[in-house]
């Protein structure tokens, strides 16, 4: 039931809002044909599994799911480190940001600004990581290039299978999160100006700082 309902929730979220926010519980229960008590129980379970997350006063959001489950990706993940992933991200994501800045509409930009605000509102490293992941995924979607998006999601899938989240979360403190959020703001500003070069540069600066932090913490693999 959880898997089936999760898929329905993803479908509802995709139709309702670009940022993955689910409708209010009363409306959602009616749409899915379940009681509010049953809906809350499933949402609680999915939240514990990391499939959705809730924010006080903001609602419930669906976490984008990487394209996992393929043995070749699992095999690859055992042979690479977070630093390896960052090297590839720095080659891919600035280009995605540049393309997305060119193609983004006003609604896209408003949604991206909301996601940047959600990163800033995060109260702990885990909450920031979740919001940050959605922010970056949304930029990939905004490129409106299915192949480019698929490449990005392959990287996300491998990233999720490495030591990334377990080792990176303790690295982030309040000051570092604030710095990352300022970098997100620079990306959003470039989108507002439809400045593809500035978008590329802002994303590259953001990822360069993340990569440097990872290397300073010794998360290069084989250590």
TrEMBL record:
The UniProt entry, under Pfam families, shows: FCD, GntR
Work out whether the entry's keyword set contains Translocase: no
| Record-level Gene Ontology MF annotations | DNA binding; DNA-binding transcription factor activity
InterPro entries associated with the record: GntR_C, TF_FadR/GntR_C, Tscrpt_reg_HTH_GntR, WH-like_DNA-bd_sf, WH_DNA-bd_sf
Q: Which residues form the HTH gntR-type domain?
A: 1-65
User: What keywords are assigned to this protein?
Assistant: DNA-binding, Transcription, Transcription regulation
Report the protein name in the record: Transcriptional regulator, GntR family
């Amino acid at each position: 039931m959880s898997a089936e309902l999760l898929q329905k929730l993803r479908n509802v979220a995709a139709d309702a809002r670009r940022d993955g926010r689910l409708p209010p519980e009363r409306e959602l229960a009616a749409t899915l044909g379940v009681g509010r008590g049953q809906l809350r129980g499933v949402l609680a379970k999915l939240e514990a599994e990391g499939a959705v997350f809730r924010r006080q006063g903001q609602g419930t959001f669906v976490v984008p799911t990487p394209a996992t489950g393929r043995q070749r990706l699992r095999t690859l993940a055992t042979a690479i480190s977070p630093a390896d992933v960052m090297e590839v991200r720095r080659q891919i994501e600035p280009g995605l940001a540049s393309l997305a800045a060119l193609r983004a509409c006003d609604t896209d930009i408003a949604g991206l600004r909301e996601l940047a605000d959600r990163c800033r509102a995060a109260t702990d490293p885990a909450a920031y990581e979740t919001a940050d992941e959605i922010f970056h995924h949304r930029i990939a979607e905004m490129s409106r290039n299915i192949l480019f998006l698929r490449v990005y999601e392959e990287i996300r899938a491998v990233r999720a299978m490495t030591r990334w989240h377990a080792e990176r979360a303790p690295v982030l403190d309040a000051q570092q999160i604030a710095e990352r959020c300022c970098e997100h703001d620079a990306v959003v500003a470039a989108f507002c100006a439809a400045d593809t070069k500035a978008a590329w540069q802002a994303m590259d600066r953001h990822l360069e700082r993340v990569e440097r932090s990872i290397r300073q913490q010794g998360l290069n693999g084989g250590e």
